[in-house]
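Changelog note: in this version the structure field was regenerated for every chain. One regenerated record is shown below for reference.
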Amino acid sequence: MKRLLFIFSFFCLPVIGGSAQNVLTLENCLRIGIENNLSLQGKRKAMQKSKYGVSENRVKLLPQINGFANFNDNIDPPVSVTDGSSYGVPYNITRTLQYGANVGLELQMPLYNQTLYTSISIAEIVDEMSRLSYEKAREDLILQISKMYYLGQVTAEQIALIKANITRLEELRDITQAFFDNGMAMEVDLKRVNI
């Protein structure tokens, strides 16, 4: 993570001079960092997953309708022959129908299910926790990127100050050398400035 932030901050540093290179503002660095951070992408997916968990549990409270249909076609309907003495005939022939159909509809709705209500409240808590976790990770990332950006700004300013100080010291050395050449400064003063 720190290596990623270092590399990212390196690209966010404004480059002094060079018109062909883009200078990134803090806002651009933050936007790029938030869009491309893998940890935040994982937290976003966890947030979506927890929202799906809440809606999945709420769906269980809705009425459910189940329907079914059945159709049988007995190509050669079976025939049953029995002793028909109870009917007063020598034998009884029973034939089944060639076609048979049945249709059904079932409606279910939970009136009260404490387990279901508890699971909904737990899913809502998990959803809130994942949202807060995402927000915290996002704020931490913004803080890290901001620190790296301002560290880069301070470093660039320090480099500019050091270069300006070196230029001033070179001018002082040249002035002291001219004073020494004209006899207005001693050799010790020239050596101090050179050191």
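Spot check on this record: Confidence is low (pLDDT under 50) at residues 14-18. The chain has two domains: 2-62+109-194, 63-108.
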